[in-house]
Methyltransferase type 11 (Niveomyces insectorum RCEF 264), 299 residues
Amino acid sequence: MATSQDIYQKLIRDTVGSAGDAEEKQMIDSATAVAGPAAIKMLEVAGLDASTDTPFTLLDSACGSGVTAAVLNQTLKREVLEKSSILCTDVSESMVNLVKRRIANEGWISTTAEQRDAQKTELPDKSFTHITLGMALFLMADSIAAIKDCVRILKPGGRIAFTTFPESSGKAGWIPDARTAFASFPTEIPFSPPMRLDTPSRWFEESWVKKTLLDNGFQDVNTVLHSYTVSVDGPEHFMRQFGMMFEMVRNMQWSDELKKQYSKEDMLERVEAHLQEKYGGKGWDLTFTLIVGSGQISE
């Protein structure tokens, strides 16, 4: 039986692999709008921002569409980037190829991309001064293995920084609109926020996050809740930004009978129609809150 991680990865493959240039640009723009503010805060707690003068070697593990590397290239001084290295890795070949295209098209400095599994990167010991994991750990079947691998490949004194969703995320972002949209269907639709997959990890709980990092060799462990607002222009814009999340819910939580009753296209049309009625075609703001965590290994 396919796990929720398998379903998620298949959705990524199907979506990214079949995207044309316009769809790919929309995908990048959506990821930037939703994850960009979180990436900025994550890099800040990692000690990387516009004031950084010291060269670094960074692994952006489970990099997705490359939001973190883009922020680095847009924020840090060119002379610092030229003396540094940024390696973007993801288990999805489609995502890695997308990032490679971004590196070439956007002229990213000292940045490369490789297909690797964050749970077992097989990268050399003590290779990186920094590791980032943006909105990724809660998606992994064995996130503890990923944390242990980070300890192995960080240089002495190296830092990890990551973002994950707290308990309150079930009432934030796109979730409230999803709840009312599914409630508007004539059939009862099961829905729970897909921020927790079928794993024993508790990345939504700050105390568990801190203990997990400390137990696995990190010190100077900190977490902070970071909130920010994402604006959507209207229902159509919302669906471009978050339509894939509704597809994920359908693939993970719906029965075969329910999928036959509502095709993917029918589901998306019904959701958009509900939002059109709910907001009258106007735009609205979404508030996202994430746990931003960091830790350091000993010198």
About this structure: Strands lie at 57-61, 85-90, 111-115, 128-134, 154-164, 219-232, 284-296. The first strand starts at residue 57 and ends at 61. The chain has one domain: 4-296.
